[in-house]
Design goal:
Number of domains: 2
Shape: rod-shaped
Structural class: mainly alpha
Helix content: 40-55%
CATH topology of the largest domain: Arc Repressor Mutant, subunit A
Number of strands: 2
Distance between the termini: 50 Å
Largest sheet: 2 strands, antiparallel
Order of helices and strands: EEHHHHHH
CATH class of the largest domain: Mainly Alpha
Strand content: under 5%
């Protein structure tokens, strides 16, 4: 399906092959455009997929979901869910830091060994 490649003269041509049709993540705006264009019935599924750099099956999947529910697919927020820090955790980290002014990695091990509390050093960095 994605046959268009740019090949550079090299003894290892597969290593330096670049695909001109890399698949990208769709945005809400692009999903709306796909459904609107397919509803107009001017462009084919293959043309829409090629224009948006997605597979034809993804275009059909979005359209099928729209026809079943009547709603345009909304993307979920990517990444790990944000976890709120409790006040006891903040006060514990600050009190240990006052006793032992050191970096986050050392604070993590002190909290685990002496207090029995597991707070990752990344949370200590970013939140305190």
């Amino acid at each position: 399906m994605w046959e268009s490649h740019i090949v550079i003269n090299s003894p290892f041509p597969k290593l330096l092959t670049q695909s001109s049709c890399s698949v990208v993540k769709l945005t809400d705006r692009k999903i709306r455009w796909i459904i609107e264009e397919k509803s107009k019935d001017v462009l084919s599924t293959a043309d829409i997929a090629r224009l948006q750099n997605v597979s034809e099956s993804r275009v059909r999947q979005l359209l099928c979901e729209y026809r079943k529910t009547g709603y345009i697919h909304n993307l979920k927020k990517p990444g790990r869910p944000f976890r709120l820090i409790s006040y006891p955790e903040v006060s514990t980290v600050l009190s240990v830091f006052q006793q032992y002014p050191c970096n986050a990695l050392t604070l993590e091990s002190i909290l685990l060994n002496r207090q029995g509390i597991k707070i990752p050093h990344n949370r200590i960095h970013n939140r305190y």
